[in-house]
Amino acid sequence: MKSLETIIFNYLENYPPSLELFRRLKQAGNLYLIGGVLREYRDWEAIRDLRDIDIIIDIRDRNIWEEILETYRPKKNSFGGYKLECSALIVDIWSLEETWAYREKHIVCEPEEYVRNLPRTVFLNLDAIIYDFNENVWYDEKYQEAMDSHVIDVVLEKNPRILLNIVRAMVLKKRYGMSFSDRLGKIIREQMKLERDFVGKLLEIQEKRYRGLILSGEEIEKVLEELG
Question: Minimal CA–CA distance to 34: which of 161, 126, 168, 151?
Fold first, then answer.
């Protein structure tokens, strides 16, 4: 069976500039893919439409890394990482040691334990899926538990973008036909009390995040009603 690295490289052969970027990133350090692209691969056992990808990098060659930043002139993204745009691909990338949960001391561990603990740094259990691109190793226990139980739960509650994650949780709930855990439901109800136009705010965030609406206002209201 082909590794995900091989599948991604084969896919990017149709987009030579993006393929070159990936090769240079791999030379710069160990790459750890996270989240959406991995769920897509698990859903379809293929990469169908790779438009954006989230990567954490353990930088090993600082010179190559600096050359990449100089070449692509990336913008700063959320949580202190970089957004690199290349051909048909958008890469959001963060340094392993600067991962937000480690930097803010919400998860404290030794640097040699950073990789193993990456699944603990995300808000939702459906995001707790990591792929070691260089070694072809998966860290996906929490993700698999979520898929088996059909329950979307919270891994790390501390997060500077709670509303965005609530939107994502609702979108994933619809996509996979899942339910919310009591803990996630409680967080959503608490946020609802803090926002004057909660549904309107979620619609605004959703449209910006997905460049359109996946859930209507009525669908969001229905989810909120189910939470009580």
Answer: 126
Tens digit of each residue's pLDDT (9 = 90 or more) over 111-138 = 999 999 999 999 999 999 999 998 999 9
The pair of structure tokens assigned to 164 is 């965005």
Long-range pairs for 207-216: beta carbons < 8 A, 24 or more residues apart: 209/164, 209/167, 209/168, 210/171, 214/171, 214/174, 215/170, 215/171, 215/174
Cβ–Cβ < 8 Å for 75, 94: no
CB 157 within 8 A of CB 122: no
CA dihedral 77, 27, 44, 156 (to 10 degrees): -40
Q: Which helix (H) or strand (E) holds 208?
A: helix 198-210
CA 110 to chain centre: 23
Write down the residue that tokens 């973008």 correspond to. Answer: 161
Residue pLDDT, tens place only, 155-184: 999 999 999 999 999 999 999 999 999 999
